[in-house]
Amino acid sequence: MTSAEIFYCTLGMCIVSYIPRVLPPFVLLRMKLSPVLACWLKYVPTSVFGALVFSEIFIGPDHTFNFKLDNINLLASLFVLAVAVRTHSLAKSIVVGLIAFWILQRFLPH
Amino acid sequence: MYCTLNREVVRAVWPIWLGYLPLGFAGGVLSQKVGLTPLEIGVMSLLVFAGSGQFIALAMMGSTGSSMSSIVMTTFIVNLRHLLYSSTLAQYLMRQSGKYLGVFAQGITDETFAVNFNKFSEIQSYWDPSKALGVNIMAHGCWIFSNVLGNVVGNVIVVDTALVSYTLTAMFIGLWSFHFLNKKLIWTGILGGVLALILSNYLDHKLHIVVATVLAASIGCIVESWGKKS
């Protein structure tokens, strides 16, 4: 790609990324939040986290599923979850998760 | 429009830095291989600010035969999920000026949403829009810095990409579990996860995340309304 093409491409990417980010607050704040929408929005965060986390854990780089028990992502995540639920500390959860992941990477064949 | 940049904000944003530094670095390395200058990847990181969006676009730029329109269209689909985040955060941004919303919106990503939503929804929350904007700006700054750095010194340092991407996964698991307030929220989240896995067979470019979320949240809401009626 030429630098002009890269520039226009970046500009196009900017516009299409910005629209979904900026429209909702303007639209939602101008209409009264209906009870149905409020209820729905209450369940959006947990659904998004579930979808992101499950995808990260179970889907491999080449779109293959990994449901085996030697899935390092899965095993390390159990440590993260245990620490997060017990301590409610994000810092401790991440540090324990990274250490677990690092150790598992070295001891499990993959 | 106020933006708070203090120790409290840094305490909230550091997990994002931990993830963005190596992730942005990896993106910068890729951008250099594809032929972008440090300025070009810097501008892209400023204007687009999306991890997977930029990675996919760079990969498409590098492969012959991807038209500009297909790159832009793919970026749109990959980043469509930000719609869900800004809709959810809107309830905490009442009475903010259009200028604030315009600037804040540019900083919405998976990670800044997760941290800000978590702070806003705490019981007796002391979080406010100016701190949320602080998180967005500090995360965005780190993203631009690490992308440019990766582009400039890319071939010198080797990054363990598996460990890197796990940092953000661990952050999401932690933030997710803090919202396990009742069984309905837990099961809706698990449903979202299972639906995402099933849908990933049919939908590309992270669209499965969007559809799975919309479906799971709707089902959670319907189940809740049944409980109220009986």
Account of the protein in words:
The complex is a heterodimer of chains A (110) and B (230). By secondary structure, chain A is an all-alpha fold. Chain A has helices at 3-30, 35-58, 72-87, 90-107. Chain A is 78% helix and 0% strand. The longest helix of chain A is centred in the first third of the chain and has 28 residues, at 3-30. Chain B has helices spanning 7-34, 38-47, 51-62, 68-79, 82-90, 98-106, 110-120, 129-153, 161-177, 183-199, 207-229. Chain B has two domains: 7-178, no CATH class; 180-230. Chain B has eleven helices and no strands. In chain B, 48% of the residues are buried. Chain B is 75% helix and 0% strand. By secondary structure, chain B is mostly helical. The chains are: A mainly alpha (110), B mainly alpha (230).
Roughly how many Å apart are the termini of chain A?
37 Å
- Helical segment tally of chain A? 4
Record field, number of beta strands of chain A = 0
Which structural class do you get from the secondary structure elements of chain A?
mainly alpha
Largest sheet of chain B: none
Largest sheet of chain A, in brief, is: none
Q: Write down the Rg of chain B.
A: 19 Å
Give the averaged pLDDT of chain B, no decimals: 87
- Total count of helical runs of at least 4 residues of chain B: 11
Oligomeric composition of the shown chains:
heterodimer
Strand proportion of chain B: under 5%
